[in-house]
Design a protein that fits this description.
single chain; 200 residues; alpha+beta; two-stranded antiparallel sheet; 6 helices; 7 strands; binds magnesium ion
Length: 200
Amino acid sequence: MSEPASSPGPAASPSRGAQAVATAPLGPLAPLGPRVGFGFDVHAFGPGDQVWLAGVCVPHTQGVVAHSDGDVLLHALCDALLGAVALGDIGQHFPDTDPQWRGAASHRFVTHCLGLVKARGYVVGNADLTLLAEAPRLKGHRDAMIARVAELLELPTDAVGLKATTTEQMGFTGRREGLAAQAAVMLWPAPVAPTVSPEL
Ligand code: MG
């Protein structure tokens, strides 16, 4: 999967929504204490033989229809990060009409969103992700997914939760038409760098 050479960023987007996000103040937020964010994403199954989930390539009988790599877990995580710091959604930062994001690896989106969180004066405390799908199952991939998300968020692995559920054969996921994901994050104000004490 090829990746665009240029770095991601809202300023690179031509869409009106992205411009609105780009002009939003990116300095530290008022000290409101911890903040939460929630994200949700869906992709339909399509031709292919693999699915990207939480930054891990999982062999499957189908692929997903997507402009990027279609990683629903990382897309939901991005929206959770953006929502927590009130900076719009993933579609505003990485429009699916922008050719530079065609086939893009979604870990790049997460890294960009984490940068925005830091610019807002926050750090991620923990993340909790849920995959809704009949297939593929996470068995055999879960540890790698948790490790990858932890790496992307600069967290220990015990700060990343990952669950999966079916929808009991109901709805679009139950009919195996696609898969969905939810993500929640907790942010904490970044620690203030300690001042250097004068000589005692
Ligand atoms: Mg998506």
